[in-house]
What does this fold into?
Amino acid sequence: IMAWAAVGCIVVALLLTSIGLFGNSWLVVSDENSEEGSGQVSLGLSNMVVDCSGETQEQACIDFAYVFLADDMEKASAESAPNDPVVKGPIKNQCENIYSITIQLAGDDQTLRSEAGDARENCLSNDSAGNLASITLWVGILGVLTSAVMLTVSLLGKQLPANAQKYGRISSFISGGIIIIGAIIWLMMKYDFDGNFESGSSFYTVIFAGVLAIIAGVLDILDKR
It folds into this structure.
């Protein structure tokens, strides 16, 4: 029973890590800082998402988000924004576009230009954090998948080349740790826009997945087969 529970935990960990990796709610606007008319803003590991659904000025919200998340703001402003109320674009685009507009408005004011540069670097730290966390989580996913195969083969009494199936529990511990480390790397590197944002469900989903992978290894140890 313990062995089957271990396999179940490792499979769920694999699914949850995948969901978290591609989720767009790693960073969400805190309740006290949400503003009417700005849409529901959230960040994934590489994308920013603005959900304008239900906004009084929905189309205006869509138009604004479409321009600020575009690769080319000038071109995007001359185009018609899509009707989809959910607008998604790379975090990097938003950072660069905000910086570009701020620099234009700042003119020769060196203080504002310096502040704009600092804000740009802080914003881009989310992109860097996401890239590094993504790489780490992919490694963790491969480890969890390998562990799932090893644990299942071991449970069925079969053998892999070089008796690799006996390393399933070790792989489970290591991959679970890697997944948690990936989430912690993101947490340490990300920028929460002066406290206006907080960690979202995707972050906690990945943490839970890493814990499940470790639990799978513990359950396999407890099995008496």
In short: The helical segments are 2-22, 58-68, 73-77, 91-106, 110-155, 168-189, 201-222.
